[in-house]
Amino acid sequence: MDAEKKILLKVRNLKQWFPVNTMIFEKKKYVKAVNDVSFDLYEGETLGIAGESGCGKSTLIRSCLRLLDPTDGSVVFDGQEIAKAKQKQLRPIRKDMQIIFQDPYASLDGRWTVTQLIEEPLIVNKLCAGKEERQQKVRDLLESVSISQEYVNRYPHEFSGGQRQRIAIASALATDPKLVMCDEPVSALDVSVRAQVLNLLKELQEERKLTYIFVSHDMSVIEYICDRVAIMYLGKIVEIGTKEDIFNDPRHPYTQALLSAVPKVSGEKDESKRIILEGDIPSPVDPPSGCVFRTRCKYATERCACQEPKVTDLGNGHCVSCHLLDE
Amino acid sequence: MMENKEKVLSVKDLNLWFDGDFSSPQILNNVNFEVYKGETLGIAGESGCGKSVTSLSVLRLLKTPPARIQGTIEFQGENLLELPMSKMQKIRGNKIAMIFQEPMTSLNPLFKVGYQLEEVFRLHQGLSKEEAKKKAIEMLDAVRIPLPEQRAKEFPFQLSGGMRQRVMIAMALSCRPELLVADEPTTALDVTIQAQVLDLMRNLQKEFGTAIMFITHDLGVIREICDRVVIMYCGEIVETAKVEELFANPCHPYTNGLLSTLPQSGVKDRLPTIPGMVPPAGKFPSGCVFSPRCEHACEQCIANKPELYDVGNGHSVRCFRYQNTEVK
Amino acid sequence: MENISLGKKIRVFIKHNGRLIVGATLVLAMILMAVFAPLLTQYDPNATDIRNRYQTPSAEHIMGTDGSGNDLWAQVVYGARASLLIAFASQIATMIVGAMLGLICGFYPKVDMVIMRILEAINSLPSILLIFVLGMVFGNSYFNLILTLVIAGMGGPTRYIRAQVMSLRQKEFVEREVAMGASTPRIMFMHVLPQCSSYLLVTLGSGLSSKIMSLASMSFLGVGLPSGVPNWGTLISAGQVQLMLYPYLVFYPMIALAITNFGFSMLGDGLRDLLDPKTH
Question: Which of the other chains make 3 or more beta carbon contacts under 8 angstroms with chain B?
């Protein structure tokens, strides 16, 4: 990784725990949705966060955006510490970091027209002087996501899923953010529309020099759109590295299994090479001691049960948390 | 080569409408396919293409009205569409079983999973309580659930998604059905769990010899598990072939488009896209259903509906470009 | 879809919304009766006419007269005025108060603790007892009656709106607003409240009918409207003394009460069917 690249978002030891209802005399329990996560995000890149449901990937970006109040740790965005900042102090920063959600049906208020939806961030952040300027901006944004101008007064339910996601993207870009967090933006879309939205996200990144954090469970989408990838399992990043490192040379046993489990439409179909993991993902309330993956790992030893693996840097920013690698 | 295989299910000229107050859009248009003994037939397509409706009409789980069904669905020499409901109920769950996308909604949350499994044996096979219990635990073991005796005593919410889907499969297979209809059974599951369930279904099929109708939108899954595949678009079958054949040589522009829009390993360029979007029910184009989005569309495609042309090796395509290469 | 005749559209609307039409017709009839009361009867509801006491229904007095010789029809017609006015005013005030409290409770957990405890205290009393006590404490002017009914009735809407706010706050479109930097009041009034509007509209019907009943009960128990203001509760209360001899004195106001109640309930159900997407 180029050392001179500017770090836009620096996350250190971030923890996001949610209390679980327990009996009065029981020890207090937490769902450790994000447990001690650290990573850097460089300006202009796309960082993919991949993992299965319940691994904490969506929680992670919500903590970074301060939609949640992190339990512990630090999040530095563009030089400012935001993990402990008050909501009022956050408001001026918010226009620089936006989010696109998975389900465009749920993320757009169905009672608002397209214009109102896209204007909203401009009004909230007082970014345009007059109505004229605002309307012009809305038209420009719609054009950049290829939605026809004649639809400005329609409501979200009159659009298809792909179009709605485009509107959500236009609205997220209205404030000219530096960082856009994409939470499974194409998972709810049909296959034939998915490619259109992925292309659009890539084009917009080039045009506007955007930085993306792209959360997805779909490894093929991650591979297509990301520059670097972080693999999460039970609230921890188990492996992070460039796309090439992760997909061509995965080192963590979980990454290897995850990649081999993805059904592919091309390439050789070799069933003998497939790694099928045993068992289920443990509950995040009671994660296994030591290495979180050890209950499903075929290489697990006694050491994995009692000691938490350290992060091993294999060079070029490729970091893995596994005992196999520091021997 | 297929002739010597025994047909389990054959669907002929299946047409389906939903009668509303103002219109009755046609949801399925002349759907024809067969499922042979011991094979897995995949039905693939995007949302709204009619794949789920097809599976529901095979089991006659659609409410009529508003649904209006024409055609024949032949199963073991009988037309399922003409059977009285009482007979249909005996076939359902016994000879044709179904598993759904979300197992939580198909399991009763108030009963233990073991009890729900026992019920199937007692209802369809008339076993006594003890026998049923023994069978239920055997079945849980067969779907590779660890500690089946203990799991049988648990409630559905205590099991994980993958475990619940295993219980559903156990339930579906408990009466050794001739045909298993699986409607997106792995869509709600994570990839590593999906790999487990697909592996299980493959092994169970070898053991039990059940024919499977596997409905999914995921072409990768189709390639993993199916022998033959039917691609649907706008309520019509646009292409059908053996799986290796389809992925090696996709003929219909829609299939081609679908496959090329999927991001492939190592590709960095702009993804090819299919222009436009899937038309909503009731607004299906009159000629070739894919013509408005097709780069090869000509006047003929807009005016007339193409047939399914057989291009050999069990591969048929509904596209005029293959009219002349048809093998009679 | 476009070339469907208007006639067919209307027929389908009637087929699906029978309750709404029946309810709206009845309610509208009652409102018209209250507004045009002087045109419907030549008698003054409070004009005592001792010579014509306890007249049975006849052409001259279609519902008969009571112990003071007042025309019952005139009293029923004028009674609609007070009953409907207070019912509408108190129901609308209840909904406004409930919506505000619900929004505040949903967004500010600390205030929520306090307000919810107060509401629990209020609702731990049986509602009729509560209304009776409040009615006695506040006295019986129009404003105080409305206040009583609002305090007694605000628990339901507050709790519902609060629950809605709690679940809506998890929704992505609200998260999106927070992420965009919108202030809490903006989110409350521009995004969350409109989502609750269909609930408020739907409960209008059932709320109005319960208010009409509460008011009638209060008047029946003597803590309702001041004497001299004709209303159905007082009429029933006065009539029940002579129930064995002159049952029509109770019968007619009861009919008016029942029709109004039925109309409001039907209107509420009809609105729910019309607005709830699940029933389509």
Answer: A, C
